[in-house]
Amino acid sequence: MEIMTHSASLQQDPPTHPAPPPKASTRKAGGWKAIKYIIGNESFEKLASMSLISNITVYLTTKYNLSGIFVVNVVYIWNGSSNIASLAGAFVADAYLGRFRTLLFGSIASLLGMGTMTLTAAIHQLRPPTCDGRHQSHCPHPKSWQLAFLFIALAFLSLGAGGIRPCNIAFGADQFDISTKKGRSQLESFFNWWYFSFTIALVVALTAVVYIQTNFSWVLGFAIPTACLAVSITIFLLGCHTYFFKKPQGSIFADIAKVHVP
């Protein structure tokens, strides 16, 4: 009887096993040692790009003697092209190049564009003669080749935006193993730091750099963002040994197109 009672108690109360320990990440690359380079790259890039975006209308009006609907068209077409390029950059990154290469090529394109804008401010022959502002309707207009040089600079900047905007924060998120609790916690912290650095860069761009452009020198005001982009690329490349690289796995845009193609 005692044996039967003991057997029944074993059936009712099976032995408990300790819960398995939390899964640890096996990745050697990535994490916070990579994030510091990515946030540094983003901070200097945003400082450069926002200082131009916020003041481009003033530059075109005062230095290229453009006004009215033409300036509005140039700015809106440039902004629209940058947004469309971001969609193309996301597709290329997901399907072919990966986020690291897309980011690198975008940063180089932005550097070329910002450097070209600096040349337009530094070399007087690339712009029409300065207008005194008293006879705005009689100010000399830029020649076709001068506008072409300006549009080349804006095109490089749009290409750069197409490579940077869709990939920077996503490449940072790639550095954390979200299958672990620690990785998910670090990812949330990364977003906080990313937006904090973005805000600081935005404040500096909209105050210090814009003030220099408007009140001191457009050459210096454009040279500072150009230097920031060069520093941005340098920081980004210095972190190559710390990054975790995800291989391109196809784009969601291609999958959506396949659904609609009979």
UniProtKB/TrEMBL annotation:
Tell me the superkingdom of the source.
Eukaryota
* The UniProt record lists the keyword Cell inner membrane: no
Disordered: annotated span: 1-28
Q: What Pfam family does this protein match (any one)?
A: PTR2
Q: Where in the cell is it found?
A: Membrane
Q: Tell me what topology the record assigns in the membrane.
A: Multi-pass membrane protein
Q: Where are the transmembrane segments?
A: 69-91, 103-124, 144-164, 191-212, 218-239
User: Where does the record place Polar residues bias?
Assistant: 1-13
MF GO annotations: transmembrane transporter activity
Q: What is this protein called?
A: Uncharacterized protein
Organism lineage string: Eukaryota, Viridiplantae, Streptophyta, Embryophyta, Tracheophyta
